[in-house]
Specification:
Blueprint lengths: L26 E9 L6 H6 L1 H4 L5 E8 L14 E6 L5 H10 L3 E7 L3 E3 L3 H11 L3 E9 L7 H4 E2 L4 H8 L2 H4 L4 H6 L10 E3 L1 E2 L3 E5 H6 L13 H11 L3 E12 L10 H19 L2 H23 L9 H16 L11
Parallel strand pairs: 1-2, 1-4, 2-3, 6-11
Antiparallel strand pairs: 4-10, 5-11, 6-10, 7-9, 8-11
Helix pairs in contact: 6-12, 11-12, 11-13, 12-13
């Protein structure tokens, strides 16, 4: 099993102890993977790395969020540095801490439920080297059948209108509306590299200097969701460009974290972090408008669940309980307990 290492900088933080780490050495890429009960996926992800990194000098660093499955036992004996926390610190915290201990000119953020195709990271690296003004580049994500996951991967930065439409189910009721098509880059030519505002962070190469300049991920978005949207918004605000490079491909299986959360836990975190994002970036009036959209959306979902319509696999009772929880928290403005770091 890979050696589990905790750096001196973390010694004062809860759940982390320390041993020395090797002296800094500049590499091409530091591959940063945050795991949480990822035993089902991690071996396939790691096996894909050597062929994906042709001719690159790279390191692999894993931040394990207190996995309770066999994730750690499935890690290789060598060439992997593992930082392990005693609690689930979330994606943002795990990435930030690991990035500070990495040695690459670029950071490659990679979810454990991905599998890189041969040469994928080398192509991303080459693209970034040829385009010094680019801040970040993502491979094209495809599903198990090889079909692009464009609706999941590439979107514009959210507006009040877009988030309200999602909360009120308008995107599901009217899936072909022009606003949704614009938000999801319908018709974008994915045969060549394209600038995009908000690519999914499941696989993303970003310049270390840029990541440091914008301050990494905002750790208030814990344990996940909207931390990547917030990062891309800060990059966009700083006039730094992000690309999708279709010649680099990553197979994304999806749902690794959701396997270990109930539906209620998922939507609770999702809407709480949507609220935090709005509080950070929207005017007070727009924040309040979004809150009412979320309230309306939860009422619609409760009504649909009562008559037997529900989203996904939860039972009717579980769905109603989940929607009622978000509704109650939205009415109470999440107790205004969401700090803004704007």
């Amino acid at each position: 099993m890979a050696e589990v290492m905790m750096d001196r900088e973390y010694a004062s933080l809860p759940g982390l102890s320390a041993v020395p780490v090797a002296e800094p050495q500049v590499l091409d890429v530091s591959i940063v993977i945050v795991t949480w009960n990822s035993g089902r996926w991690i071996e396939r992800c790691l096996r894909s790395l050597p062929d994906a990194c042709e001719d690159l000098r790279y390191e692999v660093l894993i931040y394990d969020n207190a996995s309770e499955d066999d994730t750690l036992r499935k890690l290789p004996d060598t060439s992997t540095t593992v930082f392990r926390a005693e609690r689930n610190d979330g994606f943002a915290v795990g990435t930030n801490r690991t990035a500070r201990k990495s040695r690459g000119k670029y950071l490659f953020l990679l979810n454990p439920d991905t599998e890189l195709e041969p040469g994928a990271l080398t192509r991303l690296f080459g693209f970034m080297e040829l385009h010094p003004d680019a801040a970040a580049a993502a491979p094209l994500l495809v599903d198990e059948s090889g079909d692009p996951q464009r609706h999941f991967q590439i979107r514009r930065l959210p507006t009040l209108r877009g988030l309200a439409a999602e909360a009120l189910l308008l995107n599901k009721i009217f899936p072909r509306n022009k606003a949704t098509a614009h938000y999801r880059y319908e018709g974008l030519d994915l045969s060549q590299p394209q600038r995009v505002e908000q690519p999914a962070a499941a696989a993303m190469l970003i310049r270390r200097q840029v990541f440091d300049e914008v301050g990494g991920f905002d750790e208030q978005f814990s344990p996940a969701w909207f931390e990547d949207v917030d990062l891309w918004r800060r990059l966009h605000q700083a006039k730094k460009e992000t690309f999708v490079v279709p010649s680099a491909v990553a197979r994304h299986f999806g749902g690794a974290s959701l396997e270990h959360m109930t539906y209620g836990e998922f939507i609770d975190v999702l809407y709480r972090n949507m609220w935090r994002y709005a509080k950070k970036w929207f005017s007070p009036g727009r924040v309040e408008a979004l809150r009412w959209a979320i309230i309306g959306g939860m009422l619609l979902r409760c009504a649909a669940a009562v008559v037997g319509l529900k989203n996904g696999s939860p039972t009717r009772v579980a769905a109603i309980r989940a929607y009622a929880t978000v509704l109650r928290k939205a009415v109470n403005r999440w107790d205004d307990s969401s700090p803004s770091s704007s």
